[in-house]
Specification:
The complex is a heterodimer of chains A (61) and B (520).
Chain A (H helix, E strand, L loop, with lengths): L7 H15 L1 H25 L13
Helix pairs in contact in A: 1-2
Chain B lengths: L4 E5 L2 H12 L3 H6 L1 H12 L4 E8 L2 H9 L12 E7 L5 H9 L7 H6 L1 E7 L7 E6 L8 E2 L4 E7 L2 E8 L12 H17 L6 H10 L15 H10 L3 E6 L3 H12 L5 E9 L7 E14 L14 E2 L6 E6 L3 E7 L4 E4 L2 E4 L1 E2 L12 E12 L7 H22 L9 E8 H10 L5 H9 L5 E9 L2 E9 L9 E6 L2 H11 L4 H5 L5 H6 L3
Parallel strand pairs in B: 12-19
Antiparallel strand pairs in B: 1-2, 2-3, 3-4, 4-5, 6-11, 7-8, 9-18, 10-11, 10-18, 11-13, 13-14, 15-16, 17-18, 19-20, 20-21, 21-22
Helix pairs in contact in B: 7-8, 8-9
Classes of the chains: A mainly alpha (61), B alpha+beta (520).
Chain lengths: 61, 520
């Protein structure tokens, strides 16, 4: 159930947003954004991995 | 006969003479140490006026190191230290003595406490003389934060004094402790208090670090520990070591901030590079320090990894580290300068180290590793939370762009940090923004001992908090709930996320459990 105030502005927003969500452009925007997010998080995960060689280098300074 | 107590007017010159006199290190060597420069600036900053010298002081940590190594040397080393106490008010020995015995005193214990700045233990060793040191932090002014500190109680000739917010520091002696041991010793001072484990001496840390591993190196004299050996030392106190690659400065800031907020200090490993000769920077070696605080000095956050994801942690312009060869809470500055290594541009941090040219700052740090000692129940790492929040941020921004809601979505800023349930409930208790009913529910709701909190800021106001169970398993659904701070903002989110087609488009995204919570 929608609890937001149902004034004309809200109704217009709902209509526009609904149209965008169901349009081919909207769907394609969403898919692209989600795919980009997936790629960025995969890259971040890779970057956070510790170089195993560095675990054997002593701190000598 | 040496008097038990002395009182001196503070000046950096007098302090270095005391260092020489009590440690038997030549004044020339004392003056050459980076600590001399560091203490000059630090005591100026915290306005030291008077030094009380406590001779023949028995220091537990030094005594343990002494029994482990120095007692067996042919050369005789004293087993007692000297402790120097610093005050930001002027007084004489007569006034101090009168205060102790309660005579007609012009100086009261309350005044001494009010003006107390902390202490330095001087070890009776050649060269490496700075023992356990507890000094107040730089003034906390809203920009500087020192969450990994605790209270130390001091007994000075029967007078009980407190250093409210600090973390013990000491210099490596290069015998029972190298830099890594000193960094761990400082870190355990905080975690021992936070997670109730025993705090080992430097000798015990080096012993536990090297016990399990077979290397060609001997334990004592210690030539330095590897991160793997440090991980063993962390396990030996009952904590879990968590290692993260932090070659990227955003990642360093975000990760360090997230754990520091819960009061957990950590080890930063970096390459120390001398850049005093601009043509050929060269590697001095690998160094370890304990990170204890940060400064949020940047006016705007930095975007993460070429995206538009903004984290509050990227406002950090300095981190404060216990660098055993510089001093406690020493500044490491993200000044944006890089090192050119044969065409390869490497991001680096300004340090207080001297290069070959003798200038402070001509050695730069190239960070590569964070080693965080965490309580075994903290199972979900920061990275997992950041990834989920990043996905939710994407969902918000794409939906906002398509629908026309939230015109300022591109400036949404996230504050992600670890919090204990007690601190979280205190935060809720003190909140003046969360609605009364919601506060009551939150205060009575059961929560795990540790939580990840992600607060969304827009136009400098917090709009909502996302709560995650830090003790869950990574493959599980560790999202707990949303806390609404701005009813209109939340109503708009409900309006958006309840539209037809939202499930179809966003189900399966790591952010879906959060989106779904707005559809109920």
């Amino acid at each position: 159930m929608n609890t937001a105030p149902s004034d004309s502005k809200t109704e217009a927003f709902q209509r526009n947003a609904q149209q965008w969500l169901q349009s081919p452009e909207g769907r394609s925007d969403i898919q692209r954004a989600l795919q980009e997010a997936k790629e960025v998080t995969a890259r971040l995960q890779k970057d956070r991995r510790v170089d195993l060689k560095s675990l054997h280098e002593p701190f000598t300074v | 006969m040496i008097a038990t107590c002395e009182v001196h007017k503070y000046s950096i010159g007098r302090l270095l003479e005391i260092f020489e006199e009590k440690s038997k290190s030549p004044l020339r060597e004392v003056k050459e140490k980076l600590h001399a420069v560091y203490f000059r600036d630090y005591f100026d900053c915290i306005h030291a006026k008077t030094v009380v010298v406590e001779n023949a002081y028995v220091d537990r940590d030094y005594l343990e190191d002494y029994s482990e190594y120095y007692v067996r040397c042919f050369q005789e080393y004293p087993r007692k230290c000297t402790r120097l106490h610093f005050f930001k008010s002027d007084f004489t020995l007569a006034a101090f003595e009168s205060c102790l015995v309660g005579g007609k005193a012009t100086l009261t214990p309350a005044q001494l406490q009010e003006n107390y700045l902390g202490f330095i233990v001087l070890k009776p060793l050649p060269r490496t003389i700075i023992g356990r040191t507890c000094l107040i932090t730089y003034p906390q002014d809203g920009r500087r934060h020192f969450p990994a500190t605790r209270c130390y109680v001091v007994n000075l000739f029967g007078l009980r004094l407190k250093v409210e917010h600090t973390l013990a520091f000491q210099e490596q002696d290069s015998v029972v402790a190298a830099c890594a041991t000193s960094a761990l010793w400082s870190i355990f001072q905080a975690t021992g208090h936070l997670f109730q484990h025993q705090i080992p001496s430097p000798a015990a840390i080096t012993n536990s670090a090297t016990r399990m591993l077979t290397t060609e190196q001997r334990a004592f004299p210690s030539a330095g520990l590897t991160p793997l050996e440090m991980a063993h030392a962390i396990k030996s106190v009952g904590l879990e070591p968590f290692a993260v690659n932090v070659s990227d400065h955003c990642s360093l800031k975000a990760t360090a901030y997230a754990y520091l907020r819960a009061g957990i200090p950590m080890m930063l490993g970096f390459r120390l590079v001398d850049v005093s000769s601009s043509s050929s920077p060269y590697l001095i070696g690998h160094h370890a320090v304990a990170i204890t605080g940060y400064s949020l000095g940047r006016a705007a956050p930095e975007a993460l990894d070429n995206t538009d994801f903004l984290l509050k942690a990227t406002r950090i312009d300095k981190i404060y580290a216990h660098d055993d060869q510089v001093g406690p809470f020493s500044r490491m500055v993200f000044d944006g300068n890089t090192i050119d290594n044969n065409g390869e541009v490497i991001p680096s941090i300004l340090t207080s180290w001297r290069g070959d040219d003798g200038l402070i700052g001509s050695c730069r740090a190239v960070p590569y590793l964070l080693l965080i000692p965490i309580y075994h129940k903290i199972r979900i790492p920061f990275s997992a939370i950041q990834d989920v929040v990043f996905n939710f941020d994407r969902v918000l921004k794409i939906a906002a762009a398509g629908s026309g809601l939230f015109p300022s979505a591109q400036l949404f800023e996230w504050d992600i940090f670890l919090v204990s349930v007690n601190d979280f409930k205190e935060q809720i208790f003190q909140s003046e923004v969360i609605a009364e009913d919601a506060r009551r529910n939150l205060l009575f709701q059961g929560f795990p001992r540790f939580l990840w909190q992600a607060s969304l800021f827009s136009d400098a106001f917090v709009k909502l908090d996302l709560l995650f169970d830090a003790t869950d398993i990574e493959k599980g659904c560790f999202f707990l709930r949303v806390i609404e701070h701005d009813i209109n903002f939340s109503e708009n989110l409900r309006l958006l996320f309840r539209l037809d087609g939202i499930r179809e488009n966003f189900e399966g995204s790591p952010a879906w459990p959060i989106v779904e919570s707005f559809r109920i």
